[in-house]
């Protein structure tokens, strides 16, 4: 099978990309970002952080494309009514890393692109880096793959809040990792004053649970988490009541849509790749997770709809690859029975 990059190049050269864009014009595209990498070295995490230069290039590429970029709330309403402009796009950013305020927001402003931030808020009110992500980075940066990350995280998180940063710094020092990550607030989330400033500058602040919970495993905590998350956002921004949600890490539970609707939430996004047709479930909207290792051709292919058809083709081939050996095995079994 041809590599995906070669297939995407062939689609552009043969005009299939233009056909895909026309055929999928009524479907909503939703881009997903996280944070930017401000510490030295290559970005940590496959899709968690990208360089500021890459994010700036992506937004410039999107602005040049001429595709209509809509605010999330407007897009959700128009999708349900089948009144979207052709190939409409929404920009979403998950978590609320400090780099969203310091580096992403100025880029969005420069291109006049609306965007939504799904903010998780427990860490926002505390001057602490996100412990589990920082520990993972320290282990990776030290090269000590044998470290028991779970035990380290549990030990630090069991401490009183006022002692956790010192314990994290001690751990990094023991591993021989410098503190540029701390100096640049790489693993901090936006403070309430930064959320307020971002809101005042036009960034749409929406729901992501208070503690970034696993919805699939902790469905009983979803409503209290939404309430606490919403209260924290309102306290910081004084804006309209948040009514859009993103499943943390894409974790989904079948009971979640009804619970979200009961709590006044109008839409929810996943991290599953795909476009969203007018009949799409508003509580299971698909997105394209962009990241440092995502090529520009894949980014373009999502926006023009080519990835949509490649994904369907790949799934069909996988079904064939599974079904043919299964039929051969069944036929062999019948032959053995006959003998």
UniProtKB/TrEMBL annotation:
Transmembrane segments: none annotated. The keyword Signal applies. GO terms for biological process: carbohydrate metabolic process. Keywords: Signal. It is found in: Secreted. SUPFAM superfamilies: Glycoside hydrolase/deacetylase. GO terms for cellular component: extracellular region. The keyword Signal applies. Pfam families: Polysacc_deac_1 (PF01522). Residues 87-339 form the NodB homology domain. GO terms for molecular function: hydrolase activity, acting on carbon-nitrogen (but not peptide) bonds. Belongs to the polysaccharide deacetylase family. Is involved in generating a small heat-stable compound (Nod), an acylated oligomer of N-acetylglucosamine, that stimulates mitosis in various plant protoplasts. This is Chitooligosaccharide deacetylase. It comes from Sphingomonas kyeonggiensis.
């Amino acid at each position: 099978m041809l590599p995906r990059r070669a297939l995407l190049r062939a689609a552009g050269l043969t005009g299939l990309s233009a056909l895909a864009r026309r055929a999928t014009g009524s479907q909503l595209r939703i881009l997903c970002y996280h944070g930017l990498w401000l510490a030295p070295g290559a970005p940590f995490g496959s899709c968690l952080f990208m360089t500021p230069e890459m994010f700036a290039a992506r937004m410039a590429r999107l602005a040049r494309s001429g595709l209509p970029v809509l605010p999330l709330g407007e897009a959700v309403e128009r999708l349900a009514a089948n009144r979207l402009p052709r190939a409409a796009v929404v920009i979403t950013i998950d978590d609320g890393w400090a780099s969203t305020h310091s580096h992403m927001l100025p880029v969005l402003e420069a291109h006049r692109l609306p965007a939504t931030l799904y903010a998780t808020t427990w860490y926002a009110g505390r001057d602490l880096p996100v412990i589990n992500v920082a520990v993972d980075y320290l282990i990776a940066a030290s090269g000590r793959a044998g470290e028991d990350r779970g035990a380290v995280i549990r030990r630090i998180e069991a401490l009183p809040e006022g002692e956790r940063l010192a314990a994290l710094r001690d751990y990094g020092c023991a591993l021989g990792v410098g503190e540029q990550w701390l100096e640049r607030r790489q693993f901090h989330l936006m403070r309430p004053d930064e959320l307020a400033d971002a809101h005042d500058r036009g960034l749409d602040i929406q729901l992501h649970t208070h503690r970034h919970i696993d919805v699939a495993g902790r469905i009983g905590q979803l409503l209290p988490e939404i309430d606490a998350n919403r209260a924290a956002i309102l306290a910081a921004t004084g804006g309209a009541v948040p009514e859009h949600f993103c499943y943390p890490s894409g974790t989904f539970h079948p009971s979640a849509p009804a619970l979200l609707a009961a709590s006044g939430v109008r839409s929810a996004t996943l991290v599953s790749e795909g476009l969203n047709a007018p009949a799409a479930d508003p509580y299971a909207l698909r997105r394209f997770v962009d990241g440092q290792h995502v090529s520009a051709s894949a980014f373009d292919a999502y926006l023009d709809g080519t990835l949509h058809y490649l994904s369907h083709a790949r799934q069909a081939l996988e079904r064939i690859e599974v079904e043919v050996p299964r039929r051969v095995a069944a036929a062999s079994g019948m032959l053995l029975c006959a003998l």
